[in-house]
Structure formats: C-alpha cells, structure tokens
Write a structure and sequence with these properties.
The structure is a single chain. The protein has helices at residues 30-39, 89-98, 114-120, 129-132, 162-165, 183-200, 220-226, 255-273; strands spanning 2-8, 20-26, 44-46, 52-53, 58-65, 73-75, 80-84, 101-102, 123-124, 127-128, 133-140, 145-150, 169-177, 179-180, 207-210, 233-234, 237-239, 246-249, 282-283. It is α+β, with helices and mostly antiparallel strands. It folds into 3 domains: 2-65, 2-Layer Sandwich (Uridine Diphospho-n-acetylenolpyruvylglucosamine Reductase, domain 2); 73-198, Uridine Diphospho-n-acetylenolpyruvylglucosamine Reductase, domain 3; 203-283, Alpha-Beta Complex (Uridine Diphospho-n-acetylenolpyruvylglucosamine Reductase, domain 1), CATH 3.90.78. The strands form 6 sheets. A 5-stranded antiparallel β-sheet has the order 6-7-13-11-12. Strands 1-2-5-3 form a 4-stranded mixed β-sheet, with no helix packed on it. A 4-stranded antiparallel β-sheet has the order 15-18-17-16. β11 and β12 (145-150) form a beta hairpin. α2 (89-98) packs antiparallel against α6 (183-200). The protein is globular and about 55 Å long. Bound molecules: flavin-adenine dinucleotide.
Length: 284
C-alpha cells in the first residue's frame, strides 16, 4: 500500500485547492482498508474528490483515498460487472462499452470513483447510479464487518443514499446489471453526451460540478443569473461566466474563497426567491 506524509491533496479535489493532510493512504485490498480503520477509526475517506470542498490549508488527520487504487473491474457471466470502490467511473463506462454492455454511458463524463458515485447517487438526465446498480458491498464501521445491501434497501434518492446519511459505511464494491447492445451505438451515446456537456460546462477551469442541488420546480443557474451574479468573484473563486450553477477556480482559490462565495449566493437567493439552496458538495 502506498502512503505519503504531509501529502498535498491538490490533485485529489475537483477545485484543485492546495491543502495538505498528515498522511494519505492508498490501499489495494479490503484487508488493508479494515486494517487502517482498526488502527485509526477517524480516517477521512475520499474517492476522486470531485464533490468535496477542502476548507483547511492543512488537515492534522489521515486521509484514506480510494482513487486509482483498489480499482478492479470484472465481467461476470450474466451481463453484470463488479467494480471496486477506487475504480474511476469513466474507465468503468469504457469497460462496459468494450464488452458490448449498455447502461453506464452517462458515467463517461462524470468524474467519480465508484464509491463516490454510490454515495452521491451520481447521475445525469440520461441515467443514474440507482437505475443500474444491483447491490453494494460495504464495510460497517460499527463492527468492522463486511456486509452487502441490495439497491432497494440503499435509500437512493436524488443525489442521496444511505451511505451519505451514515458516514459509518465504507463502500467497497458494487455490481451493475447491464444490457447487451452494439458497441458502436454505445460509444456514440457516450461521446454525444460528453460533447453536449462540454458545450455547456466550464471545463477549462477546475470545479466540482453543480454547486447546489436543484430545488423543486426551479433551475439554479438562471436564478443566479437573474441576480446578476454571473462572473461574481471572491478571491480566486468565481461564479462561472459559462454556467452560473458552477463555481470555478480561476487562480489560486482557497476553500474559504469557495465557501464565502457559496454563502453569498445562498443569502441572495434566500432574500430574492425565498429558497434555501442545498449545497451538493461535502464540505471538509
Ligand atoms: C466537471 C464535473 C461535472 C460533474 N457532473 C456531475 C453530474 O453530471 N452528475 C453528478 O451526479 N455529479 C456530477 N459531478 C459531481 C461528482 O463528479 C460526483 O458527485 C461524483 O460521484 C463524486 O465522486 P468522487 O469519487 O469524486 O467522490 P468524493 O468527492 O471523493 O467524495 C464525495 C463523498 O463521498 C464519500 N465517499 C467517497 N468514496 C466513498 C466510499 N468508498 N465509501 C463511502 N463514502 C465515500 C466522501 O467521504 C464524500 O463525503 C460533477 C463534477 C465535476 C467536477
């Protein structure tokens, strides 16, 4: 297992904020993960870091990073694929396509580990984790035992799941049930989806995707635009000029810049629209 002291998390958060932690661990197996939790129950777990905001310059605690490690993807006989928590979902999407299996096209352009995708019930209007997943294997931190839960019991909702409500469960792996289809057609859907998204999203600057969950009956971007906040900036953090639902790091943004900007937008939206915006990212 790789581990690094005084590790800079810059490449492990979507905003590319510079922030260090005491030690970062990159385990390769379930046994190593259990062993780490036995030694340190207070580990800070992250996946690929595309839905977190790092607010501290230094974390005097250890991080467990499940990204590009513990990342096996395997094909089963019944059009099912099993994926370990650290696998990057773009790779899973490509793996499914190469095996002529449809259902994970929407993941081609969502930057995510398997663990993060399950926790956040990641998805687009073309698909959602909960629609294709069948079961999740997890480590219960209450008793350090490995358990399985079927999708019906995982309390999946819009950008939410049982794993988000209880931080005492570490996603270890999941299975997806897919549908056989023509490889070329699958690839076309993946590429079309990516092209559509890149034409609208500010991918030229580091960001963590949509900042706020969509409130019922409203779209966040247009509300922010109506308030004249497109391009509004605090420190190195800016409301994207391309898509007002995104906050981008246009320079050396700190986590505090991002949080100040979020608070400012929330206050304005509350005042003008009487809507309490909910932040999609996990603030660490
Ligand atoms: C450009 C861009 C576009 C995006 N588009 C979308 C989109 O279309 N749809 C969408 O849903 N999201 C989108 N996102 C947000 C993000 O990609 C997803 O939320 C993604 O699922 C986060 O996964 P992650 O591995 O990066 O999680 P992290 O950010 O690493 O972690 C998120 C949370 O999950 C927890 N967690 C991570 N791994 C585990 C695990 N194994 N077990 C238990 N808890 C764990 C962490 O502790 C944290 O609380 C986008 C982000 C960006 C940057």
């Amino acid at each position: 297992m790789n581990s690094f002291h005084n590790f800079n998390l810059k490449e492990y958060n979507g905003h590319k904020v510079s922030s260090t932690c005491r030690t970062a661990y990159f385990p390769q197996s379930e046994e190593q993960i259990i062993d780490l939790y036995k030694r340190n129950p207070k580990l800070q777990l992250i996946g690929s870091g595309h839905n977190i905001i790092l607010t501290q310059q230094h974390y005097d605690r250890d991080f467990l990073i499940l990204n590009n490690c513990f990342d096996k993807i395997s094909l089963q006989t019944d059009n099912t694929i099993d994926v370990e928590a650290g696998a990057f979902m773009k790779n899973v999407s490509v793996f499914a396509q190469e095996n002529g299996l449809s259902g994970l096209e929407f993941f081609y352009d969502i930057p995510s580990s398997l663990g993060g995708a399950v926790v956040m019930n990641a998805g687009t209007k073309e698909g959602e984790t909960s629609k294709v997943i069948t079961k999740v294997r997890y480590l219960d931190l209450e008793d350090l035992k490995i358990k399985e839960i079927c999708k019906e019991k995982a309390e999946f909702q819009y950008r939410n799941s049982i794993f988000q409500n209880s931080t005492k469960k570490v996603v270890l792996a999941a299975s997806f049930e897919l549908i056989p289809d023509n490889k070329k057609d699958i690839l076309k859907r993946m590429k079309d989806s990516k092209a559509r998204r890149w034409s609208k999203q500010p991918r030229e600057f580091p960001n963590c995707g949509s900042v706020f969950k969509r409130p019922p009956g409203k779209f966040v971007g247009p509300m922010i635009e109506e308030l004249g906040l497109k391009g509004y900036q605090i420190g190195g953090a800016q409301i994207s000029k391309k898509h007002s639902g995104f906050i981008v790091n246009i320079g050396n943004a700190t986590g505090q810049d991002i949080i100040s900007l979020i608070d400012f937008v929330k206050q304005k939206v509350m005042k003008e629209f009487n809507i309490n915006l909910e932040v999609e990212q996990r603030i660490l």
